[in-house]
Amino acid sequence: MKTITIANQKGGVGKSTVAVTMCDGLRASGRRVLFVDTDPQANSTSSFHAETDGVSTYYDLLKGEAGVEEVIQHTEYGDIIPSDHALRGIEETFAKELSNYLILKKALEEVSGQYDYGIIDTSPNLGFFLTSAMIAADGIVIPVTADDYAISGLQEMLHTCRDAKTMNPNLRIYGILLNRYDRRNSLDRSCWEQLPAVGQQLGVHVFSTPIRVDQKLKSVQRGLNFFQQYPSSHAAEDFAAVIVELVKEIEGNGKE
Prior knowledge:
globular, 42% helix, alpha/beta
């Protein structure tokens, strides 16, 4: 299983939508995918219609009260390790023990043979949940939007990636993904024009296709079953192109 963490410490970039739509696209291509929601807000968990009451969740996995097989739920939208609102406010507690940062990585290794890909959704802040998701990943996709802080915030994100590499030296940055792109907007066009040069300067790949704004994507719960319902939409075309580019980078470079 190749595990991809969708990460950005900045909120409002559509990170969860990117995560679940990429998961949906990979599943539509016939690949076995495990989704992991590490965000205490649990938005992706709600999108999957996963249970959180009376069942084991990511919280129980971290607490050592359930194994990974126990926390995986098989929903109509795919397999997911659900988040839990119980995670709110306890991040500092988990962060005190260095070994806790490896819990997710070790858990995913136990089920690696059952899936082709893992997609991890993360919280929009620099802390235990984001760092442990990076440590558990083979690589990272960084969604950004076209605003005044998108490019400047990349430096901080890359610094966090370097910190995670101390415990996961093989961690790669698969690329920066411009999300919610509206070519009618001058700021969006300017950001898209600058991004390749910024990526080159930072030594980070920029995906060659931005994800265009698409009202149809908003009508589907954060991208779940989006490819089935709107296969010819702008967003479906864009995500499909990004997924092809990503899979080629992961599967086509001779590194399994």
